């Protein structure tokens, strides 16, 4: 049975055409299949980059460039969310707007602020 987080709204993948969404995951062999079966991530976002498939992991700046390229966006047009300080710092060093996840309400508030600020 797939579990969904009701707070997560997916503007990409057929949702709001102004946004492209992706997942950038430090992962292990089999993660794509397990996560797809459990959560259906491939149906929720436009792109997924798994580190074990890409041969690099966060906070390597090349992996942030890879997800931006696959999404067809520039780093400065991108918002990144992670719970690890080093990954948030890596994203910022790559020119991406980054939010450190603490809880759903905080993350949603910070992301909405970034999306509505010119």
Characterization of the model:
This protein has five helices and four strands. The protein has a single domain, classed as HAD superfamily/HAD-like (Rossmann fold, 3-Layer(aba) Sandwich), CATH 3.40.50. Strand 1, helix 1 and strand 2 form a beta-alpha-beta unit. 39% of the residues lie in helices and 14% in strands. The strands form two sheets. A two-stranded parallel ribbon has the order 1-2. Strands 3-4 form a two-stranded parallel sheet. It is α/β, with parallel strands linked by helices. The termini are far apart.
Compact overview of the structure:
With 118 residues, the chain is α/β, with parallel strands linked by helices.
Label this structure with key terms.
118 residues; alpha/beta; Rossmann fold; two-stranded parallel sheet; 5 helices; 4 strands; 39% helix; 14% strand
Q: Mean of the pLDDT scores?
A: 89
Shape-level CATH architecture: 3-Layer(aba) Sandwich
Q: Are there runs of 5+ residues with pLDDT below 50, and where?
A: none
Total E-strand runs: 4
General shape: globular
* Major beta-sheet overview: 2 strands, parallel
CATH superfamily: HAD superfamily/HAD-like
* Structural domains: how many: 1
Distance between the termini: 40 Å
- The percent of residues in helical segments reads 25-40%
Main sheet: strand order: 1-2
Radius of gyration: 14 Å
Question: Which range does the strand content fall in?
Answer: 5-15%
Class by SSE composition: alpha/beta
Number of helices: 5
Examine the coordinates and then state which fold CATH places here, giving the name of the CATH topology: Rossmann fold
Helix and strand sequence: EHEHHEHEH
């Amino acid at each position: 049975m797939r579990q969904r987080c009701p707070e997560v709204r997916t503007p990409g993948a057929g949702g709001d055409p102004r946004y492209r969404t992706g997942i950038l995951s430090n992962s292990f062999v089999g993660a794509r299949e397990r996560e797809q079966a459990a959560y259906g991530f491939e149906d929720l976002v436009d792109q997924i980059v798994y580190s074990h498939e890409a041969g690099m992991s966060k906070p390597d700046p090349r992996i942030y460039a890879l997800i931006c390229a696959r999404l067809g966006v520039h780093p400065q047009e991108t918002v990144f969310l992670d719970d690890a300080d080093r990954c948030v710092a890596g994203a910022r060093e790559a020119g991406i707007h980054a939010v450190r996840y603490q809880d759903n309400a905080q993350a949603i508030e910070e992301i909405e602020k970034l999306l509505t600020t010119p």
